[in-house]
Amino acid sequence: MKTSLPYKYITSVKNGKQYVVFDYKDGTGKRKRKWVTTGLPEKCTKKALNEAIDEIVSEFDAQFRSSATVSAPTATPMMTEQFPATAGTPESGMTMREYVSKWLTAVRPNIARTTYSTYSRINERFVNYLDINYPNITLGELRYNHVQEFLNQKLAEGCKGSAVKQYYLAIHSGLAYAVKMEYIPTHPMDKLVVPRADKYEATFYNSDELNCLFEAFKGDKLELIVHIAAYYGLRRCEVLGLKWDAIDFVNKTITIQRKVVSDYDENGDKKLFVETRLKTNSTRRTLPLIPHIEKMLLEKKEQ
């Protein structure tokens, strides 16, 4: 316990996570206790824990000294601090579920179907987590520790770092829109510890393996597709998006300009969709027509 302050605090572990526990008296002299999560797991570096403690104590101290009473938070399943809203805009008072719905509606016309699907799926899981642990939490009340706990939980559940990084990016994008539209003054995730993504190690077929692959598909209806994918390194969705207008037999080029993706329609049924909006300008590209691919295409066109 720290005794040189008008309150005391210790660190404690609960449910595998590090907390700072404050012991103080409110304006009426009633003793109270307040649990504040560090957002860190039980096994963490001393440096990270000390930095988190310093930040939490500093914020608590400012609240304690600026008010005669520091209200104890409403108990939640996670025993985590509830902060006041940071902004007085009407939008900051929306629940997180309401805000996420508003954001997705706003950005849907400007992003690819697959991007929208990813944003929607990840943020739905995040909102479900909030509904369980922080019922009716508003956009203005959200803090980095709420997101940190969610990401830590995903890691604890066995998600790889690269998958959790996708969670981070999808949630970050949603809250960045709130800052851009001036619903809230600062991004709640600025202090968050970014999950480390696993380094992707790609593997490739060597020439012998490719020849075995081509031999296996010789005469098969997928033979042309396998050759195009192998020689051009196209994604599956890009190969499926090829149509005859992508082939220029005069200038000897092949243009990647659409893709076919699988997604759910408005009725919840999984269907295939043709997308002409590709992710980046570099994704839409024109490549030289390889002679033996051209020959295979002409044979297919004749059929």
Structure description:
The protein is of the alpha+beta class and 303 residues long. It has 3 domains: 8-66; 90-180, DNA polymerase, domain 1 (Orthogonal Bundle), CATH 1.10.150; 207-302, no CATH class. The protein is 41% helix and 16% strand. The protein has 9 helices and 8 strands. The chain has helices at 46-66, 96-107, 113-133, 144-156, 161-180, 207-216, 223-232, 236-240, 291-302, and strands at residues 8-14, 17-25, 31-41, 247-248, 253-256, 259-264, 270-275, 285-288. The protein has a 3-stranded antiparallel beta sheet. Strands 4-5-8 form a 3-stranded antiparallel beta sheet, with no helix packed on it. Strands 6-7 form a two-stranded antiparallel sheet. The longest helix is centred in the N-terminal third of the chain and has 21 residues, at 46-66. The termini are far apart. Mean pLDDT is 83; it is low at 68-87.
